[in-house]
């Protein structure tokens, strides 16, 4: 019986840990203002937690296709 309880406790701890990491990730809504070669200038609304020289990951917006009859 104690093996089952220990397994349940460890599984719950793992789930809470993974959820905490995913909630810690920051996101911001930005608009591309200029592109010059490999340099992209973004204008963001919420810049809390961002610092100059910090590496960020940029993901383009997904546009859904409109299907008709």
Structural class: alpha+beta
Return residue spans where pLDDT drops below 50 for at least 5 consecutive residues. Answer: none
**Widest sheet: strand ordering:** 1-2
β-sheet strand percentage: 15-25%
The gross shape turns out to be elongated
Structure in a nutshell:
With 69 residues, the chain is an alpha+beta fold. The chain contains 1 helix and 2 strands, in the order αββ. A hairpin with a 2-residue loop joins strand 1 (30-36) and strand 2.
Spell out the blueprint of helices and strands.
Blueprint: H1 2-24, E1 30-36, E2 39-44
Antiparallel strand pairs: 1-2
Structure, explained:
The model has no long low-confidence stretch (mean pLDDT about 80). The chain has one helix spanning about 1-25; strands at about 30-35, 40-45. It contains 1 helix and 2 strands; from the N terminus they run αββ.
């Amino acid at each position: 019986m104690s093996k089952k309880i220990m397994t349940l406790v460890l599984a719950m701890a793992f789930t809470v840990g993974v959820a905490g990491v995913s909630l810690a990730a920051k996101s911001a809504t930005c608009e591309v203002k200029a592109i010059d070669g490999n340099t992209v200038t973004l204008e963001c609304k919420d810049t809390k937690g961002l610092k100059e020289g910090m590496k960020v990951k940029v993901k383009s917006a997904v546009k859904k296709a409109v299907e008709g009859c």
